[in-house]
Every structure is written in C-alpha cells, then in structure tokens.
Amino acid sequence: MILKMAAVRRMMKLYGLGFHAIRQQTSLRASRVPQQRAFHVNGAQRQQPFDSSVEKPQFPGASAEFVDQLEFIKPNVISGIPIYRVMDRQGQIIRPTEDPQLSKDTVLNFYQKMTLLNTMDRILYESQRQGRISFYMTNYGEEGTHIGSAAALNPNDLVFGQYREAGVLMFRGFPLDLFMAQCYANADDLGKGRQMPVHYGSRDLNFVTISSPLATQLPQAAGAAYALKRENSNRAVICYFGEGAASEGDAHAGFNFAATLECPLIFFCRNNGYAISTPTNEQYRGDGIAARGPGYGMMSIRVDGNDVFAVYNATKEARRRAVAENQPFLIEAMTYRIGHHSTSDDSSAYRSVDEVNYWDKQDHPISRLRHYMTAHGWWGEDEERAWRKQSRKLVMEAFERAERRLKPHPDLMFTDVYEEMNPGLQKQKESMWRHIQQYKEHYPLDLYDK
C-alpha cells in the first residue's frame, strides 16, 4: 500500500510538471500570435485590438456584428456580379473614358494574332481528322481572352496555362514552326516529343509547360508568385484555367495560398460555358467563379471575354496592383467555346447548332474587333482578303515543314530526368534497343533523327 501511494505521488508530481510546461508553451504561443497575425494579414484585414468592454464579436477569424434573429445567408444575396465591358457587340466604345486608346498598329496586331490563331486552329484540327497528328484542341471563340490578357502583361511575367492559351504564346512571339513541331512531336519540338499535342511551353517566353491534369497549375502558380514576391523582382504571375477546373480541389488550395501569402498573382478564369460536356448549371450553384474571390480575400472582377479591350484593361490594372500591393486578383472572363472541347469530343451531343451559331455569328471577339477597326477606317474588305490569304500561307508553310521533319532520337526518352543516367535508366535503355533490333521491321529508324 505504501509503495502504491508513493507511485501515485510521483505520477502527480510528473503531471504537475508537464501541465506547468504546457501552460508555459501556451502562454509563449499566445504572446506570438499578434506578431504572426500582423505578418500574415494585410491592412484591410488586420485584427482590431481586443477590448473586453465592447459588446461585439471579438473572434479572430472574421469581421462581423452580433444579431439576435436566426437567419441563414441566402446564396442570391446579390443580384449578380456585373460584367465589365468597353465595346458593345458592334464594336462601338460605350464610355470614352474606358477606351484604352491603343494605337492603330497595336489594334491591328491584336486582330492579326487572333485571326492567325484561328487559321492555325482550323488547319491543325483538320490534320488530326486526317490522322496526321493524334490530338488537338481549338481556341475558337476565346481568342479575345488570350490576346487581351497577354498584351497587358510584361514580357518577364510568368504564365501558367491550362491547354487553351495558345494565343498567349503566339502574342509573345512563339513561332508557327514551334507550334507545329510540338503538335507533330518532331525533332524541333522543345519538349523533344515527350508530350501530347497542344502541351506547349517556352522557357525563353516565360511560359510554363502545360500539364494534362486539371488545375495542378493553380497551387504551382501560387508558389511561383510567392517566390517572385520574396525576390522583390517586380514580376507577376498569371494563371489561366476554365470554370470546370475551378471545381477541382487544387483550385481552392491555390486561391487560399495566394491570398494568405499575399502573392502577386492573377487568376484568370475563362468561363466558356462548358467543362467538356458539363454545362455551368451542373457545375456550380453560386454566381460563377468571380463570386468566390471575396470568400478567399481576393479582389475580383467579371469581364466580357469577347471584348478584347475589356480584357486588356482589367488584366493591366490587376497586374499593376498585384505587383504594387502584393495581392492576388481573380478575373472571370465570360466567353463561349465555339469549337468542340477537343478532337475527342462531339459537342453536338449536348448543345444545339443554333446556340453555337449565335456565338459564332453574332457575338464573336474577332468580328467585334473588326467592327471597331472598320469604324475607324483601319480595315476593309481588301485588307481582310489579303491578310486571310497571307495568314493561311504562313500556317501551311510551317505545317509542311513540320510534317517533313524527322522524329526525335529514341534515346531522348531517357534524358533530362537525372544529370547523369543512373543504372536503372541505363538498363531500360539497353532493353529498348534489344527489343528494337529484334523487331526492327516494326521500327523504321530512318524516320527518326540521328
């Protein structure tokens, strides 16, 4: 009995020491909380000093008032986020103060890049249908979101694309030959033939190589933007994604990281109406994607994605403030995907021909910009015919060069993973060549680069 009592006293003493240590650690953490909070939140969200005498919420997690009536917040608490635009559908400037006052040469460059992208799309889409390439995704109807946003960025800003931002690369100077080389996976491809078509990338043009899985680029972009912030480099990151990708978990993680770490990042959502065959009314119940921004503490705007000037203005201002204030912005560009989701999709199974024709004929970003140029006397039928002929010639010449080019050397399948090839990869490489030699009638090596 005496031994038991002694053991109990020792345990109580140890418990007392442990409890005292826990209280000390808790007190130390509590003393650090104001410092941590001051570091992590911006001025607009800074926690007010605690005052126990005031009868109002003191919770650190939100800014609010007490109410004494039970009422749930309704999802339609506002009538809808408005859509910012500069031009109407006939290309007329609605408010002169919103006109970006771009020069004739700049506007013509916008138009030529948008139509050149459209021409490239048509030729590569047909080449897939003819079995010349394995896969393709067009950009029909979304050209205004590409060119308007790309023009508003600085060349050294970092771009994370999804898979429908070819116009951004084109505006930055990516040549037609490299677009074709990537889709044909030939020896000129910067990715050395190791990616499926339309997965472009360019280190020189600060365009991160596209990945197939949806939304993986959002948290990656948040990390890259945080790194740029730490470097004080006066650079921004822009991250493109569709409204379907915004339903992925990675999107929410990216939003939250960017907001809490206060990153110079523009989240650019192309809301084109469909996530493959799923329409927006089956994707979400809230007011689009821009409505999510305030919930994460982000400045947000919704723009007419078929108005290249509205996209330009919104992106330019978001870029300026993102760098100056170190905070993320969310732009939701409302547009329409006129083409099929990809060459693996038949959109006639889930939407009407009349619906597609409306957006193609009456509310297209290219036709809207052409109306604007025509009204200014900068463009006419003669210029249109000459440019369409010239742009098709440029694309077809690049197309033919790519088709004649050899495929990358098979050894390139094993490079660029390690600085020096490890024994495992070396063994796989040797096994591949034994297989090729054994069945060489099935592997025409004369089609591959030496």
Structure commentary:
InterPro entries: Alpha-ketoacid_DH_E1_comp, DH_E1, THDP-binding. The chain folds into two domains: 96-404, Rossmann fold, CATH 3.40.50.970; 410-447, no CATH class. It is 46% helix and 8% strand. The protein has helices spanning 2-40, 104-129, 143-152, 166-172, 176-184, 217-231, 249-260, 280-283, 292-296, 308-325, 353-361, 365-375, 381-404, 423-438; strands at residues 158-160, 207-208, 237-242, 265-271, 274-275, 278-279, 299-304, 329-334. The strands form two sheets. A six-stranded parallel β-sheet has the order 2-1-3-4-8-7, sandwiched between helices. The chain has a two-stranded antiparallel sheet with strand order 5-6. The longest helix is centred in the first third of the chain and has 39 residues, at 2-40. The relative contact order is 0.12.
User: Strand sequence of the main sheet, in spatial order?
Assistant: 2-1-3-4-8-7
Q: CATH top level of the largest domain?
A: Alpha Beta
Q: What is the general shape? A: globular
Here the CATH topology of the largest domain equals Rossmann fold
Compute the number of strand runs: 8
The oligomeric state is single chain
Structural class: alpha/beta
The biggest beta sheet reads: 6 strands, parallel
The CATH superfamily title of the largest domain: Thiamin diphosphate (ThDP)-binding fold, Pyr/PP domains
Total discrete domains = 2
Enumerate the spans where pLDDT stays under 50 for 5 or more consecutive residues: 1-5, 11-44
- Percent of residues in beta strands? 5-15%
- Termini distance? 89 Å
Number of helices: 14
The radius of gyration computed from the alpha-carbon positions, rounded to a whole number of angstroms, is 28 Å
CATH architecture of the largest domain: 3-Layer(aba) Sandwich
What's the order of the H and E elements?
HHHEHHEHEHEEEHHEHEHHHH
* Estimated helix fraction: 40-55%
pLDDT averaged over residues: 90
